[in-house]
Specification:
two-stranded antiparallel sheet; single chain
């Protein structure tokens, strides 16, 4: 009887340990499943040129500096990349004005009134811009930025290289097709815009 009682205790203890281990294992598996599901939910696959590329979703605060710099770069690209074609000028300026407030519109209207765009078309002059650097201070809102760039004014006989430095502030707005980063440039003005060198063609 003592052997039977001891054996029963051993079997009961073994069964208890087995059931407890199974419950712990099930709990761990369920926890890991939810963790993997939440990670997989943040992954997006983009099909580009027949190749699947993985993209990760992230909070906006993680990407503010990157998106802000790209927003400033795109605005300057559209505002200063011009060809001697009225439709190209209008298209680029319209895109730029979606990314900024009335301060950019004022500069555009001043240039238009002074005949700047008409001179580009009449002289078959192209203008391109290369963004050298964009500094954005995300420690205080609205975000202050300063953009350093090089302009190329391409004429039939020469290329003029100009140093361009601008500054302004960025505030948050709703994202849209015309403003994918969800920023708006405010109080934008030019600090410096001077000739650096002229290269004869």
């Amino acid at each position: 009887m003592k052997h039977i009682d001891t054996a029963f205790r051993y079997v009961r203890a073994f069964t208890f340990v087995l059931i407890t281990g199974s419950l712990l294992l099930c709990g761990f598996v369920i926890y890991k499943s939810y963790e993997l599901a939440s990670i997989a939910k943040n992954k997006v696959y983009v099909l580009a040129n027949g190749k699947a590329l993985e993209a990760l979703a992230a909070d906006r605060k993680d990407n503010v500096p990157v998106e802000a710099r790209d927003h400033v770069s795109m605005f300057h690209h559209y505002f200063f990349t011009l060809d001697p074609d009225d439709k190209v000028i209008q298209r680029n300026i319209t895109r730029a004005l979606y990314l900024s407030d009335a301060s950019a519109k004022r500069q555009y209207e001043n240039l238009k009134e002074s005949g700047y765009y008409s001179n580009l078309i009449a002289g078959n002059i192209s203008q391109q811009i290369t963004i050298d650097s964009v500094q954005v201070n995300v420690d205080s809102y609205p975000y202050y930025f300063q953009c350093h760039a090089t302009q190329q004014i391409i004429r039939a006989t020469s290329i003029v290289y100009r140093v361009l430095i601008t500054e302004g502030y960025l505030r948050n707005v709703e994202r849209s097709d015309n403003n994918s980063h969800g920023f708006l440039i405010e109080k934008w003005h030019t600090i410096e815009n001077r000739d650096e060198k002229v290269v004869n063609r």
